[in-house]
Amino acid sequence: MAVRSQSPLVEMPLFPLASVLFPGGRLQLRIFEPRYLDLVRECTRHGTGFGVCLILQGQETGEPAVPAAIGTIARISDFHRDDGGLLGIVAEGGSRFRVARSRARSDGLLRGDVEVWPDEPKQPVPVEFALLQTILERLIETMAPQWRDAPRSAYDDASWLGFRLAELLPLDAGEQQHMLELDDPVQRLAQLRDILPRFQKP
């Protein structure tokens, strides 16, 4: 991990989940706990995001969970009520961040002071990773229709390619978190390529 210059801390609510949200990714949630209904109200009222962090210890419901230090800012793009009357939201993944300190409110909602990371610069995909572009096209066709209209230029961006593969390949949550934390998009592609044989049928 490269050393990063300190940026001003930003205060935001945190939403620990059993899954990883990547920059550019999409998150769909059903909200029923009062603390997270408050979170949605706050974010929609002020037009702000919330931090999604992988749960390291604990559960998504009940007592406050222990979140990973590095997560992704989510911004709500849509919401609706499902047949059971529960609030459903769609959020889009933005910048990554590191939690400097966190605290739990009396209702269990976590809030954190976070250092927002700069977005990875666009970097062309080296020719030796062309197979990963083909694999992603196949995964999107069967698993992620929301990306079917992505421009060809997206597949040529090492960061976008790596994040989409990391969310669609059958990695465990710890591996996904590792891919999120890497700050070299080409290194991310190299590690994804190296674990591909695990998923090949005999």
TrEMBL record:
| Pfam families for this protein | LON_substr_bdg (PF02190)
Annotated Lon N-terminal domain residues: 9-200
What is the name of the protein in this document? Peptidase S16
Domain of life of the source: Bacteria
Signal peptide limits: none
**Annotated PROSITE patterns:** LON_N
Looking up SMART domains in the UniProt record yields: LON
* SUPFAM superfamilies according to UniProt: PUA domain-like
Q: Which InterPro entries match?
A: Lon_prtase_N, Lon_prtase_N_sf, PUA-like_sf
PANTHER family linked to this entry: ATP-DEPENDENT PROTEASE LA (LON) DOMAIN PROTEIN (PTHR46732)
